[in-house]
Hints:
By secondary structure, the protein is an alpha/beta fold. The chain is built from 4 helices and 6 strands.
Amino acid sequence: MAPSESLNVKPKPQKLPRLPSNARITKRPLLRPPIPSPYASSASPKIIYISTKTPFISAVKRVRKLLDLIDKRAVGKIDLGDGRKGKETLRALGEVDQASGKEPEEVILKATNRAIEKALGLGVFFQGQGDVRVRLRTGSVGAVDDIVVEEKRTARKGKKGSPGRKENEGETAGAGENADGKDEVNEEMGNMEADDAILPETQIRKVSVLEVGISLT
């Protein structure tokens, strides 16, 4: 397997600030460009997105199908009726490919986060195939998350004394409960003031991405 390459060399992102208790994060799905037709030219990258639920054998078959189409498109239609002429044509095509110095067309497997392990497994599988070359490229992309603010919590009321208590005991217990109630209200008000901070509607987090490029040798 070829050594891994970095997609984007950027400084380490800063840690996102902690959200207040009345806010939560809703993750959006990652944006993906439209998938081109398998029969499109080499100008359109052949990408297969890998998730944690992608069947392994299904992914292998899809890669092989795309590689076969790439091979047919690169060779084109050749008449091998005349053996000598056909060999000369194939030899000429090989010389043109070597002289052009262009990178061969790839089938790219893309995976993020927990699906990276499955993409690596597919890369290791194709590494054992003698007719392909495997390259790894790592990087990161920005993902947009929505910040949802919940309704404010109301301060809890102080506890009431039981009616069956004596008058003196009720006064003493009532004074203590009032003090405790004030402390609880002050604590709730402090939390509510902290929760009233102005929050953005969205935030951007970084997601790890792995690309496995598979091409014919």
